[in-house]
Amino acid sequence: MAVQRIVIENCAIATVDGDDTEYASGHIVVADHLIESVGPGKAPENLENVVRRVDAAGHLATPGLVNTHHHFYQWITRGLATDHNLFNWLVALYPTWARIDERMAYAAAQGSLAMLARGGVTTAMDHHYVYPEGAGDLSGAIIRAAHETGVRFTLARGSMDRSKKDGGLPPDFAVETLDGALAATEATVDEHHDASFASMTQIAVAPCSPFSVSTELMRQGAELARRKGVRLHTHGSETVEEEQFCKELFGMGPTDYFESTGWLGEDVWMAHCVHMNDSDIAAFARTRTGVAHCPSSNARLAAGIARVPDMLAAGVPVGLGVDGTASNESGELHTELRNALLINRLGAHREAALNARQALRLGTYGGAQVLGRASQIGSLEAGKLADLVLWRLDTLAHASIADPVTALVFGAAAPVTLSLVNGRPVVEDGHLLHVDEDAIARSTRDEARRLAGIAGQD
Predict the structure, then answer these.
(1) How far apart are the C-alpha atoms of 89 and 324, rounded to whole Å?
(2) Distance between CA 138 and CA 109 in Å, rounded?
(3) pLDDT per position as a tens digit, 294-330
(4) pLDDT reported for residue 458
(5) Does residue 182 surpass a pLDDT of 60?
(6) What is the model's pLDDT at position 233?
(7) Is 372 a residue whose pLDDT tops 70?
(8) What is the pLDDT of residues 210-265, one digit of tens each?
(9) How far is CA 391 from CA 11, 53, 220, 239, in A?
(10) What phi, psi does 40 have (nearest 5°)?
């Protein structure tokens, strides 16, 4: 079958390549699922099999956004425990989360993915770690929702085996056994992980956190991931309380504990990493361990300000994450570009902390690095997968800002006119093409009420 091409012209382009190449007015040619060319001015003439031409005047083209940390199931527990810190918030919500089932997980994933995709995310991830006994195929339900939405997806198959009786935070009925968690995780990798260049579904091994997971699950989880050739993900150094917990339980801080269990390396990324000292950052840089920076969630839970400028200066790979929508109710990654920039400017580096282009890189190429897919996505370059977004910047919200990248990052959330994943449209004129937003809104509302009813009976 002949190659089919989409030609996009007359837009500003931020490639986010190694040289931060930008064009005030340029073109992108997509050939099937790959980017064929990117450059200034009009596309080459006499291209064959052009099935669509897009006049993108008034738009900025960027790589699709890459989300590196989320908990989809939390979509149906938004707006609860709004004035809690992390540990109190977890204690308040774990009993409810432990009642989720397959239908709830599917609806919540639909809602989370719809908001991500509508806001320019082309690669999503979900760290799902709550697997109540008898709840059904939760991983399969989440993956099915991602497939239907049309985004590229990584499921970080989480687990917990340290409950209250073992000194952890989750209730006893909310955790798996060590052997059960490892077996279920391996089965998920075997069934769903696709390591190919254009893969739409990948799996990571992801025990939840030091305070909900045994040392053996951490250690054997790392061994499992490396035996299977998949990535590793967990929460790390999110709060001061977590650091105290690790020192009391393990006799060392979180980073040293992670290193002792095999959890530092270029195949690992950690969520949050708010409370990192100089030696912690140096260890992450030395081992190329990645970080998912979640500025809105960190602020919502009063966790603190991560040292992102220092991490970047040291060479730590850093991407952006929404985190679960019970701690970031908007569920949108494009707003995290702005929040990452603004919140980091409240830290020690002040106005020099991050600029607009660094924020955009965090949300695109940085995320691709963290997920281990920087050779495939995260920048607009010939030969990479055609995951890209056209942001409309000629409306009232942005029209007086001359620089398009500044408009996107500093300005109001820009509408998405077109989003492509693998060269296939997922969003057109702000609307999802493959799922019904109104139906999703109804089903997530119904499942939230059903969960509240079940949890209220206990």
Answers:
(1) 12
(2) 10
(3) 999 999 999 999 999 999 999 999 999 999 999 999 9
(4) 56
(5) yes
(6) 98
(7) yes
(8) 888 999 999 999 999 999 999 999 999 988 888 888 888 899 999 999 999 999 99
(9) 10, 17, 44, 35
(10) -80, 160
Three-class DSSP labels, the chain: CCCCEEEEEEEEEECCCCCCCEEEEEEEEEECCEEEEEEECCCCCCCCCEEEEEECCCEEEEECEEECCCCHHHHHHCCCCCCCCHHHHHHHHHHHHCCCCHHHHHHHHHHHHHHHHHCCEEEEEEEECCCCCCCCCHHHHHHHHHHHHCCEEEEEEEECCCCHHHCCCCCHHHCCCHHHHHHHHHHHHHHHCCCCCCCCEEEEEEECCCCCCCHHHHHHHHHHHHHHCCEEEEEECCCHHHHHHHHHHHCCCHHHHHHHCCCCCCCEEEEECCCCCHHHHHHHHHHCCEEEECHHHHHHCCCCCCCHHHHHHHCCCEEECCCCCCCCCCCCCHHHHHHHHHHHCCCCCHHHCCCHHHHHHHHHHHHHHHCCCCCCCCCCCCCCECCEEEEECCCCCCCCCCCHHHHHHHCCCCCEEEEEECCEEEEECCEECCCCHHHHHHHHHHHHHHHHHHHHHC
Distant-in-sequence, close-in-space partners of 199: CB < 8 Å, separation ≥ 6 = 152
- Measured torsion, CA atoms of residues 134, 140, 146, 149, in degrees rounded to the nearest 10: -90
Place of tokens 């956004």: 65
Question: Given the structure tokens 């997971």, which residue do they identify?
Answer: 213
The per-residue pLDDT for 91 is 86
CB 38 within 8 A of CB 368: no
3-state per-residue secondary structure call for 63-119:
ECEEECCCCHHHHHHCCCCCCCCHHHHHHHHHHHHCCCCHHHHHHHHHHHHHHHHHC
Q: Which of 88, 98, 80, 96 is nearest to 173 (CA)?
A: 98
Q: What are phi and psi of 11, to 5 degrees?
A: -110, 155
Q: What is the pLDDT of residue 457?
A: 62
- Other C-beta atoms closer than 10 Å to the C-beta of 79 total 9
Calpha distance 290→311 (Å, rounded): 10
Answer whether residue 163 shows pLDDT above 90.
no
